[in-house]
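Workshop exercise sheet. Pairs work together: one partner reads the sequence aloud, the other fills in the structure field after running the prediction. Swap roles for the next sheet.
Pair: D.N. / O.F.
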Amino acid sequence: MVENELSQVSQNKISAATMLERLLGNEADSLIERRIERRFKESKLPEKKLLSDFDFNFQTGVDRRQITELSDLGFIERKQGLIMAGSSGTGKSHIAKALLLLGCQRLYRCRYTMASQMLKDLLAGLSDDTLDKKLKTYLKPDVLLIDEVGFDRLEQESARNASLFFKVIDGRYNKNSTILTTNIDFKALGDYLGDPVITTAIVDRMIHHSIIIHIDGPSYRMHESKNLNKMKESGKDDDGEKKIKEKKT
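Structure field:
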C-alpha cells in the first residue's frame, strides 16, 4: 500500500500531503479494526450474530422498530438493563448476541456468558477462595450478556445460586448495562435459583431501570426443522419415482 501511494506521488497524481493523510487514515482504520477484534475475543461471544440476519418477517412477535432503536446502544450509555423473555427458539439469544457484537464494534468492554456457566464459575470461586476475582469478570464489563437464564436446570444444585446471582446483578445495578435472556417468568425465578426471598431482591433490581421485551411468537428452530423434514421427504419421493422409472426402462 505504501509503495502504491509513493508511486502516485512520483507520477504527480497526488501530493505528498495527500499521501500522508491517506496513510495515517489507513493506519487509524487498521488500529480500530484490531481493537474491535480484541473486544470481540475478550467478550467470549461464541459466534457473530447480526441483526440483518434476523428474520423479522417470520418472527412477528418482535417489534422491528423497537429492536432497531436498541441497536443505537443508547441503553448502554444510560446504563439500562435489557431483559428478553420468551419461549425457546423465538430469537432472544440471536438479538441479544447481535446487540453485544454491536457493543464490541463500538469498543465497549463486553462479556458473554451462559447463566449456568457463570454460576458454576462463581461456585468454584467459593471453593478455592477466588470468588472476588471471579466476580470482577462479570462486574467490570460495560455490557454483560447472561444468556439462557432458566434453560439449564443444573443451576438448582446449590441454594447459594441465588446469593451469587444477586452479587452480580446488585454489583452492576445502575453502574453498567446487563442483558438477560430467559425462558421462564419472574415468578418461577425463585424456584430456579433456589431462594425465593433473595430472588425478590434480584428481580427488583433486574426490572428497575430496564427495558423488558417479551417475544410471543413461533419457534424458528421448529420452523427450520419442519422445512428440513419436508425437503427430506421430497427427496425420498424423488428417489422413489426415479427407481420406479429405472425399473420400467
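Discussion prompt: The chain has three domains: 2-40, 45-216, 219-249. What would you look at next?
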